[in-house]
Amino acid sequence: MKIKKNIAVSDSGFIFNPNTGDSYSLNKIASSIMKMLKNGVEYEKIKEDVLKKYDIDELSFEKDYYDFMSMLINHSLVENEK
Predict the structure, then answer these.
(1) Can you give the residue ranges of every domain in the chain?
(2) Which of 31, 39, 46, 48 could form a disulfide with 26 if both were Cys (CB 3.0 to 4.6 A apart)?
(3) 18-43 pLDDT tens trace
């Protein structure tokens, strides 16, 4: 998955979808993940980076990551890579 090109992601963890006018605020880990997704970073590298930088275990990361990805899909903020 990758973030759609028109989705704005700020350094402070704010997301704006100009198509719908919706905006979202992210916590520190979600913001870090969004930045990596926007830059085309693959899942394994995201996982490695988050586990290294934040106090989270692997099982919790995986659950939270896939919950977060489901939220991004439900709000049409990501697209499948081709």
Answers:
(1) 2-79
(2) 31
(3) 999 999 999 999 999 998 998 889 99
What tokens appear for 62 in the block? 């995986």
DSSP 5: T
User: β-strands 8-9, 2-3: how paired?
Assistant: unpaired
Residue 1: per-residue pLDDT = 77
How many residues does this entry show for the chain? 82
Distances (CA, A) of 10 to 6, 24, 51, 72: 13, 11, 22, 16
pTM: 0.85
- The helix/strand/coil state of 79 is strand
For domain 2-79, the CATH architecture is Orthogonal Bundle (1.10)
Contact 28, 47 (CB under 8 A): no
Q: What is the mean pLDDT of residues 68-78?
A: 93
